[in-house]
Structure prediction request, 941 residues.
Amino acid sequence: MTELAVLLPEALVIIGALAALFAERLPGGDRTAARLGSALAFVAALSVAAIGTASPIAGGALAYDAIARDARLAVAGLTALYLLWLSGADLERVREMAAFALFAALGGMLMASAQDLMALFIAIELGTMPAYVMMGYERGDARTLEGSLKYYLLSMTTSLVMLYGFSLLFGLTGTTRFDHAGALAPQGLLGAFAAVFALAGLFAKLSAAPFHFWTPDAYAGAPASAVAFVSTAPKIAGTAALLRLATGVSAGEVVPLFFGAAALASMLLGNLGAYPQRDIRRLMAYSGIAHSGYVLLALGAGSANGLAYAIIYAIPSLAVMLVAAEEGTAVDDWAGLVQRRPAVAWALVALLLSLVGVPPMVGFFGKLAVFGAALDAGRTALVVVAVLMSVVSAGYYFRLLRPAFFAEGVLEAAEGVQRRAWTSGAAIAIATALTLLLPLGLRALQTLSGLRL
Amino acid sequence: MASHLLTAIVFVPLAGAVACALAPSARASRALALAVSGVVLALAVWLVAAFEPGAGMQFVERARWIPQIGAEYHLGVDGISLPMLALSALLTLLAVVASWNVSERPKTYFALLMLLAVGMNGVFVALDFVLFYVFWELVLVPMYFLIAWWGGPRRQYASIKFFLYTLFGSVFMLVGIIALYLHPAGGTLDITALAGRGFPAQFQMWAFAAFFLGFAVKVPVFPLHTWLPDAHVEAPTAASVLLAGILLKMGTYGFIRVTLPILPEASRAWAPAVAALAAVSIVYGAALAFAQKDLKKLVAYSSVSHMGFVMLGIAAGTAEGISGAVAVMFSHGVITGMLFLLVGMVYERTHTRMIEDVSGLSVQTPVAGGLLAFASFASLGLPGLSGFVGEFLSLLGAWKSELVPAGWVVVSAVGVLLAAAYMLSVVQRVVLGEPSKAVAGISDLSLREVGVLVPLVALTLVVGVWWDSLLRYVAPVAAELAKRAVGS
Prediction:
């Protein structure tokens, strides 16, 4: 029974989710629910850090190694940050959003430790189901419904393909456990298909090309406040699961090839696709595809640096979407932001440059880790593409900064500055501080299991 | 205390940036900027006084930073970085004084100037590749905003072009850094420790290409120079001064600090090609400068030409060549700083930079006219002024070098003649003659403006007459570098 103590963080998250469902009974209602959830998720993150690594539980189905620790810490931490913001958000039915985010976080945390195909599938579904609801949050809006339906159908399809791959893997190897390198080693052409099918499901969760095309439509239909969470925290969990699965499955040459092709396609399609976008959600959707390409570049090289990169990407990306949720989702909505909210505008500089990978922001260290891992594995050509694409990405991230700083003829606060809850500023400030200061906090970087050259 | 002198020089401006941004008023902000840059200059002077010429890396500071990737906090100065650091401290102070009357968002402006100083000072003292890269990129952001916010009409285009070009180069430099680190012969990010590791020739060629892209964009070397005229013309005066005076030098400093010692075989193998590009930059930059109607653009293109001499000296790899390269870096920073300041001061009064609209400065404003003539003569390389020292040594070094084909040296020498042609035509058309309509009635330089220019005039004279004042620091390091790395 004592071995279940490592599940304390997950238990805290469940408590938060259930409490949010009964928000009517709480004094203060929705706000309290979100704040309670935020606090519990924060304590969950702290307890993940305190527990550290432990031996596997549930007969070996759930691992609690460094990968699980870092991914769970990041998912719980980001969820806490998101719920903090949510508690002051100008949104209806906050309690539902809070509950679903916490359930999704629970799924993500289990995903990060699952090393059994069954457990992994259940965790993925637990993590994804709430996201369907969050993406379709504005029930009356046709575009939202279209986007969330697309998201649902494609996500389901890829889940089923993945499940088919899992069943083939089980049939060929006779086990569902992938707890060590090469644990699942199916032979022959069918084995290669099984591996590719299984991985394809997780690629789709990361919205990596060629499974990316639903993302921009789904994000553009959904409220930015939902996109902020759905596009970040689950990606960390997905990366952790993919890292574990890719290590466990060995099916010859096809797996590295699959990773390389998907990384190349994601970097190219994501970065070039982001260029013409005028909607911040679409732009960030393409940017997310591109960043998944960098993650796959590292994972394909067999390096845990991909997980560090996913975490480093998720922090500024979440904050940028939170700003979009407050300020508007068209690029031009940000016009004159520096007059209205100078601190937020300058925070955006740090956040977006971190996504480009400019030092001293933490994104640079992520890029360093990814490029280092890929060069070490001899993938020079892919690194050159990645490097060129990161310059391209600066072009579209600056397109977001330009109206915020240099829009001409914007009347200052024409419709009166809206009073915002302190939590909104606090959440963005915390994300910015993490983006700027992580490189200085040696200890923080040391705990990232990847980030090693 | 002395052992943390470099940290202070690099990070005092960072505190200054925060203070300027949070200052209660515009006046307080600019006073803070002045005080901070004055303190930094005083520290730099202290550093120069305490520096022992010829004694290698000094004031070294080392501390753990990010152990997983082997990055250290590692600073130090030698005879090549010292003059550049001092120049950076001086030009920052002068840039603050020159921007005294900036009226648009002054707090942000001075904060950005201070932030820029952090990056500029840091690049010249960083001895760890990650730290070097951090400072290298750090200059981009404030410079982007300085151009994009306080620049001329095409500032949006010019600023993003500047940013993307430089980023394009530097990401390749990053690939080079990682490649050095991952190579079995490398395994460290310590720039000094990587020197003379004997990387295989084939690897060196590729690594050199990556670093070349990074540094050459910054210098800029033809054909990667097209961002420079746009950025310079649109940038506000102080930003132009720092861009030409310090940022361009970061590129050539990179060649001297990184590629010469770490990739000597590739530096030798690529030398003829680099020399060819240098000669083309010299002549092409000079020819374009000659064709310009805009005074500021003329100075911008003359920078391309002058930086060609730096590249020529570096390609030569001889002691004279490297000394000459550093001397050009220093004196170009001083002289071009003067030219940009004067162009800015004239523009503030006449609201035009067109050469045809401005004439007769010496009649209407004798101080401005005289100083512009002085700066022009210094720029064309008149013996006795600092511009001559470096160009002479760099040509001499290239002539003596076995790596640089003599033909390119001859072509480069023609560039000196062209420089005389375009600079003298400036003197003739702008300084001499009858005052034009735009010039009539304008006031001469104020005491503050003269005060900005006097230190630069003095440095031009001192270095031009007493070569040893600069070369005593540079020459020992250059000789060591030439002997050890290039083997000449």
About this structure: Residues 68 and 440 of chain B are 65 Å apart (CA to CA).
